[in-house]
Amino acid sequence: MHKRAKLLIGTISISVILSGCFQGEQSMEEMDPPPNAEAVDNLEHISEEDVMDEENVEGEVDPEETVARQLYLVDANGMVAPQTIELPNTKQVAHQVVEYLVKGGPVTEILPNGFQAVLPEGTEVLGVNLQEDGTLIVDVSEEFKDYEAAEELKILESITHTLTQFENVSKVKLWINGHPQNEMPVNGTPIGEGYSRTNGINIADTDTLDLLESQAVTMYYPSEHGETRYYVPVTQYIEVTEENEYSSIVQALIDGPGFKTNVVHVFNPDTLLTNAPDLNDGVLELVFSKDILQDSDQAVIADEVMETLVRTLTEQENVEAVDVKVEDVDQLVNENGEEYTEPVTKQAFTPTEKL
Predict the structure, then answer these.
(1) Beta strands at 283-288 and 321-326: parallel, antiparallel or unpaired
(2) Strand pairing of 171-176 and 135-140?
(3) Where is the GerMN domain (predicted)?
């Protein structure tokens, strides 16, 4: 994730057709591609027949067809949060999702109620290029520099989380008009090594913690605007025990994000982990007291409790799914009465794809 790739500035635009499962996206203008770089492609699997079709190589698709994409936008509380929006189908997916983050751009007419785009108005995406190590280089126009200092982290978080939702993108590097950037142009946030999810998002107040003795963890909490509920990622610094870091994360979720964060606390504060979390072959088993249940007589666990646990814990390395159990309860069900017969993955809430 932290490997550096040598970048050579040139004047050649490239279009690469990748064999197997995808086709080429618009490459970086004003530069040659880095060694071992791949032009960013369509997210969907492409048939051999499509690969041979020059019209499809150029990205022409049915203009009436739409695909659900996830964009990280700014909500009414100033928090960066994902929203799933139907966008026109295209072969140039990475290029498209960045364009849809621009104020006054094509996203304007379809913004969810209470949300706004964050990239400066007039910003153009000049090119995108995916390197072999998972670094995605995004080249934007000079208009990108026209923002307030207070917006800088939100811009970085929006771009980074929108693009790293794709499982083969690990971090993002920014170029402006063909030139690599070592820091952001307004407030000087360092970005020379790239920006990734490990840099955090919506970072919570840490005044009461010793940062040297704590760990940054991104937790997911429900939030609401009107009648709409959605999930907001919040990076919190929590004190992690050496015995079991997952216990510390779950306890932080139970305790909640604090009063300064505009999200919903969904856990009964009396909820307890009765056994130490156990990770086996990517599945994290959690055993709770009955206080976690919404309805103990029917063994119902609230959907928002399950989603908060799964979204948060599958962000941790090596955790692919979460198996929630409750002491003295044989079978848990969701709010619709459906049984949880298998460990729950994040794909149940946020399907992942590759570029």
Answers:
(1) parallel
(2) parallel
(3) 94-185, 246-335
8-state DSSP, 288: E
Q: What is the pLDDT of residues 34-76, one digit of tens each?
A: 544 445 544 333 222 222 232 333 445 665 799 999 999 999 9
Other CB atoms closer than 10 Å to residue 115's CB: what's the count?
Answer: 20
Q: How far apart are CA 69 and CA 84, in angstroms?
A: 5
Would you state the structure tokens that stand for residue 196, as one six-digit string?
């990734």
123-130 average pLDDT score? 97
Are the C-beta atoms of 127 and 161 separated by less than 8 Å? no
The backbone torsions φ and ψ at residue 121, rounded to the nearest 5 degrees and listed phi first, read: -60, 140
**Alpha-carbon distance 238 to 209, whole Å?**
8
Question: What six digits make up the tokens of 81?
Answer: 């949060």
Contact 144, 176 (CB under 8 A): yes
Query: Can you tell me the distance from the alpha carbon of 239 to that of 158, in angstroms, rounded to the nearest whole number?
Result: 27
For 205-258, write each residue's pLDDT tens digit: 766 556 667 889 999 999 988 888 899 999 998 887 767 789 999 999 999 887
CB contact at 8 A, 311 and 341: no
To which residue do tokens 């939030």 refer?
Answer: 223
Angle at 251 between CA 216 and CA 321, to 5 degrees: 80
Distances 78 to 81, 172, 195, 263 between C-alpha atoms, Å:
9, 22, 20, 12
Order of strands, sheet of 278-280, starting from the edge strand that comes earlier in the sequence: 278-280, 283-288, 321-326, 344-345
**Choice between 2 and 332, residue whose per-residue pLDDT is larger:** 332
Residues 6+ apart with CB under 8 A from 341: none
Per-residue HEC secondary structure of 137-148 comes to EEEECHHHHCCC
CB-CB contact of 197 with 218 (8 Å): yes
The pLDDT value given to residue 221: 94
Contact 40, 18 (CB under 8 A): no
- pLDDT tens, residue by residue, 133-159: 999 999 999 999 999 999 999 999 999
For residue 324, the 8-state DSSP code is E
Question: Quick check: 185 pLDDT over 50?
Answer: yes
C-alpha–C-alpha distance, residues 179 and 137, integer Å: 11
Helix (H) or strand (E) holding 94: helix 93-99
